[in-house]
Design goal:
alpha/beta; Rossmann fold; six-stranded parallel beta sheet; five-stranded parallel beta sheet; 36% helix; 15% strand
Length: 355
């Protein structure tokens, strides 16, 4: 079928974020045989000629979106954080294309009020919403005509192409990439800051970025840094801001940043906290390492630093599981099936309940 995929093309970053989830899903849709046309809403708004005012650029972007609907006549529209496309434009698209199905996906936490508002801004007009958090926390996004479902972070073999599990000569034991977002602040009390520094003070050879004076990493140098480590520290955000309360267990269920797909898809032995219950996706001590406290983390890091055979075995199993069960081809196929209310074509290895 023809699918119009609208999202952030990140052209302003000049290729530094080539591995984002939207690019992976486009790859998956194409591998599934669909004809995909991609529209970057933000880049289109910025590039609108002779329109120096952002609001005018946004209007031009919505006009271009509707022109594409007329010309391309998609069977499905997929919105990935397409914040500049208005609900009015989605209703207009349905007038132009009475049979079209519209879906949106969101990979940010559902405990961030701004993100919740962005999702809710389109639920009235979409047929399906996909979020990288699972369970009852999704029920708030349900409408009478629109379902809500979980998707895991996809691995794409053309992007996660490293095989760290096959090597023993990496110079670093642990890798950690901190990203603190638009707020440009780092919460010194957060485990995402404390845990890496604790490991460093304990003598662990940890290569970290985005904190303690080291820059954030993007682009191919990010993957080059991954290649230099044996293990990856997966610490996802757990609260909306430094002064916000900890998110509830329900709001954290199966949530993880796409960092986990980079780590596991590249063959790092991935160490993650027990807060997100990722044991529902990966078997502890067989495909992933789960810890509760920083002391337990240190114990496990020291053990696997000295036991390459065990480290490689678990990392290889996690790599295999990620590429086999959580790849972009399967996940994009699942999204199409749920959007069209079609029977599921596989026994997908993640929660498939809809709300």
């Amino acid at each position: 079928m023809r699918i119009l995929h609208v999202g952030n093309g990140n052209q302003k970053h000049r290729g530094a974020r080539f591995y984002d989830v939207g690019s992976k899903l486009t790859n998956g849709l194409i591998r599934n045989g669909h004809d995909v046309y991609f529209l970057s809403d933000r880049d289109t708004a910025r590039a609108a000629p002779l329109l120096p005012v952002k609001k005018w650029g946004e209007k031009a972007c919505n006009d271009i979106f509707l022109d594409i609907c007329r010309n391309f006549q998609p069977d499905m529209i997929l919105l990935g954080h397409a914040d500049l496309i208005t609900t009015d434009s989605l209703w207009a698209a349905k007038d132009i294309l009475p049979q079209v199905r519209i879906a949106q996906f969101n990979v940010d936490p559902v405990f961030r009020p701004h993100n919740v508002a962005q999702i809710l801004s389109k639920t009235a007009a979409v047929d399906a919403t996909f979020i990288t958090t699972a369970g009852p926390a999704l029920s708030r996004f349900h409408t009478d005509h629109g379902i809500v479902a979980y998707i895991p972070n996809p691995v794409d073999p053309s992007m996660e192409s490293l095989r760290c599990h096959e090597h023993t000569d990496q110079p670093h034991s642990v890798f950690w990439a901190h990203r603190y977002g638009k707020a440009k602040h780092q919460d010194a009390t957060s485990p995402r800051t404390q845990y890496p520094l604790f490991l460093e003070r304990a003598g662990v050879d940890i290569d970290y970025y985005g904190m303690n004076g080291k820059p954030e990493l993007y682009g191919q140098v990010y993957f080059q840094a991954i290649a230099q480590a044996k293990m990856g520290l997966n610490l996802s955000i757990t609260k909306a801001g430094p002064d916000a309360p900890e998110a509830s267990e329900e709001e954290l269920f199966l949530y993880a940043s796409d960092r986990i797909s980079h780590y596991m898809g590249c063959g790092l032995l991935t160490l993650t906290t027990n807060k997100n219950h990722l044991e529902d996706l990966f078997t502890p001590d067989e495909e992933i390492i789960i810890f509760e406290t920083v002391e337990e983390l240190l114990e496990k890091v020291r053990f696997y630093s000295q036991n390459d055979t065990a480290r490689q075995r678990i990392a290889a199993a996690g790599w295999q599981k990620s590429h086999t069960e959580f790849n972009s081809t399967l996940i994009s196929r699942y999204m199409v099936e749920q959007t069209f209310r079609a029977p599921l074509s596989a026994t997908y290895q993640w929660p498939t309940e809809v709300y």
